[in-house]
Design brief:
Layout: E1 14-19, E2 25-26, E3 29-30, E4 34-35, H1 39-42, H2 45-48, H3 53-64, E5 69-73, H4 79-84, E6 90-95, H5 98-105, E7 113-117, E8 128-133, H6 145-156, E9 157-168, E10 184-186, E11 193-199, E12 207-216, E13 221-230, H7 234-244, E14 246-252, E15 266-273
Parallel strand pairs: 5-6, 5-8, 6-7, 8-9
Antiparallel strand pairs: 1-2, 1-13, 3-4, 9-15, 10-11, 11-12, 12-13, 14-15
Helix pairs in contact: 6-7
Length: 274
């Protein structure tokens, strides 16, 4: 996996299809509206996205607010989710991908988490102390779904509850580093995997579209992950949070809590429900 690539996160925004031998495409829809991830790619997720400084910060914030009820929206394979559980905590992991959640449920410690297949509308708590969206999940939530998601999270939190998440700074133009013309090949448990990416430039809506190509050489399967990411600046995100009923306490520009500056590649928001 290339550094800071956005694949695998918040799959309801991804359209996955397989390129057939004749050059056509086929899709497997889930719940009638989307295609889910190829399980072979999910097997690589934790290798490509290991536990690190981002998870350390989100765990520390949970401890600092003495969280007893936690929501992890867009929990993916559950790496962070299960590490938040225990210590008399109620942890809810929510993700639209059945394949992701099946993987999460197989983790050691998964029984201590309540797993829900869905988006923010599937959050069934109303008194959470803490909610997180990690892995740049916020960027995968587009259009009217973005304010609706923030409203759902506000409803899930108790008054004074904390919401924390990160989003890439559009000023850093991260998508330019994802334009990879060269194909790379790596060994996986499913045999050699050839990968490359096609990336658009930022459009007028502040969005970038991507197509990640994955060819499993042993079978010839060519799986394409198509997704769109929203690049919102600090002011735009702050306005959305305030409109949803949050106060923005701080925005960091690094995982060691350095105050955000305009050139920083990431914006880490800590907001509190009004």
């Amino acid at each position: 996996m290339r550094p800071d690539t956005p694949r695998f996160r918040f799959s309801r925004q991804a359209d996955l299809h397989r390129i057939d031998d004749d050059g056509g495409t086929s899709s497997t829809s889930r719940l009638g509206i989307m295609a889910d991830y190829d399980a072979r790619l999910i097997d690589l997720y934790d290798v490509d996205n290991p536990d690190g400084a981002d998870h350390d910060l989100y765990r520390a914030l949970a401890d600092e607010v003495d969280a007893r009820s936690i929501v992890d929206l867009g929990c993916g394979t559950g790496s962070l989710t299960v590490s938040l559980a225990g210590r008399e905590r109620h942890v809810l992991g929510v993700d639209p991908s059945v394949t992701m959640l099946n993987y999460a449920r197989s983790r050691p410690g998964a029984a201590s988490v309540h797993w829900v297949n869905g988006d923010s509308g599937g959050i069934d708590v109303r008194d959470a102390d803490y909610a997180v969206m990690t892995g740049n999940v916020a960027q995968h939530i587009l259009g009217d779904a973005w304010p609706r998601t923030l409203a759902d999270l506000r409803q899930a939190l108790r008054p004074g509850g904390v919401l924390a998440f990160e989003s890439r700074n559009p000023e850093a133009r991260a998508w330019e580093s994802w334009k990879l013309d060269d194909r790379t090949v790596r060994d996986t448990p499913h045999g050699p995997l050839t990968e490359w990416a096609e990336v658009s430039d930022l459009n007028g809506n502040g969005e970038v579209t991507l197509a990640f190509h994955n060819v499993f050489e042993d079978t010839g399967d060519h799986v394409v992950e198509n997704l769109t990411l929203a690049f919102r600046d600090r002011e735009r995100i702050t306005r959305a949070l305030v409109a949803a009923g949050f106060d923005v306490e701080i925005v960091w520009g690094s995982w060691i809590r350095k105050p955000f500056q305009e050139a920083d590649p990431v914006m880490i928001f800590k907001a509190r429900r009004q």
